[in-house]
Amino acid sequence: MICTAKKCGIRFQPPAIILIYENEMKEKSRQRIMPVRNFSKFSDCSRAAEQLKNNPRHKNYLEQVPLRQLEKLFSFLRGYLWGQSLAETMEQFQRETTIDPEEDLNKLDDKELAKRKSIMDELFEKNQKKKDDPNFVYDIEVEFPQDEQLQSCGWDTESADEF
C-alpha cells in the first residue's frame, strides 16, 4: 500500500501518535491512531521513536515521517507525564536541539556527542545549496580584504631542516 504522510501529532490521554495520511490508490485522507504502550516519564524518547518506526504494523505508514519528528512527539509526551506545560517542554526541547557555539564538545560523552553531530548534520543538509536551487552558483570566488598586516606564526617560519 502506498501512502503519503500529511500530518503527525500526539494525543496525551490515552497516549497515542496520530498520523493523517493519504492513500494514493484511493486518493482518500485517512487517520491512523498508533497507541503508545509501556512509555513512562523515565523512557528514552529516541529509543521509543525507533521502536515505533520499526514496528511491522506501522512501518509502511511511518516511512515518510522523520525519526527526529517522532522523537519530538515522544519528548512532548514525556514532558506531559512529568507535569510540564507544553511551553516548558517546547523550550526544553529547543535547548536540547540547538548547538551552543561556546560549548566544548570534547567534554561530552559519546552519546551526547553523537546527538550533537546529528543535529549539525541536519542543519548542514537544511542550509546546503544544491544544483536545483534557484540561487545556486557553481564556482564562487571571494576575495578577502587584506587591510591589516598578517601575523606570522612560529611554526610556519621555521625551516624544514630542523626536523
From TrEMBL:
GO terms for biological process: microtubule anchoring at centrosome; vesicle targeting, trans-Golgi to periciliary membrane compartment. Keywords: Cell projection, Cilium, Cilium biogenesis/degradation, Cytoplasm, Cytoskeleton. Signal peptide: none annotated. GO terms for cellular component: centriole; centrosome; ciliary basal body; cytosol; nucleoplasm; spindle pole. It comes from the Eukaryota. The keyword Cytoplasm applies. It is found in: Cytoplasm, Cytoskeleton, Cilium basal body; Cytoplasm, Cytoskeleton, Microtubule organizing center, Centrosome, Centriole; Cytoplasm, Cytoskeleton, Spindle pole. This is Centrosomal protein of 19 kDa. It comes from Vulpes vulpes (Red fox). The gene is CEP19.
